[in-house]
Amino acid sequence: MKGISRLRPAQPRYTYTWDPQRLFSYLETLPDNLNLLQLSQKVVSLLALITGGRLQTISLIRLSNIREEMDTIQINITDPIKTSGVNNEQPTLHIPSFKEKPCLCVATTLKAYIAATKDIRKKDQDFIFLSAKKPHATAKKQTLSRWVKQMLSSAGIDTSVFKPHSTRHSSTSAALRRGVSLETICRTAGWSEHTATFAKFYNRRLTDRTDFAKALLTMSLNKD
């Protein structure tokens, strides 16, 4: 296997990514009274973006592990995940409130989802996400992936190119562009601060190929 990996080393899936603002802009157009499927798609997509987490991790959120503290929701992931190991800490998701735009507030959306599923949730269903269709079984990672794919497609993002996991590329690259430290990005996404994973696989430029032209054109706005 080592010989094969030397001949065919792992390569990044994407050479560019999409701007999270495209998804945020679409979410702002949605009505307040979403049905359960729409609400499921929205909350999972927002969680994937603002945590930089894997959908596997998000699918393992349990109601019993959610704590609300002041303006933040804290979620401990206690089930085994891809990076679980003897010396690796389990992730904790920190969800801040976003009062500036309530329609994009993940904490508010998460609480709305919990309220919407209260009456259909069985007593032994501790995992937070349920199928939007009867009999409302516990939703697996594949279901969450489908929800995110549907949301990305609705937002005009090419899902023939970008898979649901691309939320991780999009959010971490955007965070770096906006000046978030590499330490914070790696800690939030679950990488070692010294790992080469982010630089090799996730730090991607935008899909907009007109950046060069736009930079030149905007010079005219600053002329005397």
Characteristic key phrases:
DNA_brk_join_enz, globular, DNA recombination, two-stranded parallel sheet, 224 residues, Integrase-like_cat_sf, Integrase_catalytic, hpI Integrase, Chain A, mainly alpha, 5 strands, DNA binding, 3-stranded antiparallel β-sheet, single chain, 42% helix
Brief summary:
With 224 residues, the protein is mainly α. The chain contains ten helices and five strands; from the N terminus they run αβαααβββαααααβα. It has one domain (20-220): hpI Integrase, Chain A (Orthogonal Bundle), CATH 1.10.443.
Any overview of this molecule?
The protein has 224 residues and is mainly α. The protein has one domain: hpI Integrase, Chain A (Orthogonal Bundle). It contains ten helices and five strands, in the order H-E-H-H-H-E-E-E-H-H-H-H-H-E-H. The strands form two sheets. The protein has a three-stranded antiparallel beta sheet with strand order 2-3-4. Strand 2 (66-69) and strand 3 form a beta hairpin. The longest helix is centred in the first third of the chain and has 16 residues, at 36-51. The chain is globular, with a radius of gyration of 19 Å.
Q: Measure the end-to-end span.
A: 63 Å
As for the CATH topology, it is hpI Integrase, Chain A
Write down how many β-strands occur, each being a DSSP E stretch of 2 or more residues: 5
CATH architecture type: Orthogonal Bundle
List the helices and strands and how they pair.
Blueprint: H1 2-7, E1 16-17, H2 20-27, H3 36-51, H4 55-59, E2 66-69, E3 72-76, E4 92-96, H5 106-116, H6 141-154, H7 166-177, H8 182-189, H9 197-202, E5 205-206, H10 211-217
Helix pairs in contact: 3-5, 3-6, 3-7
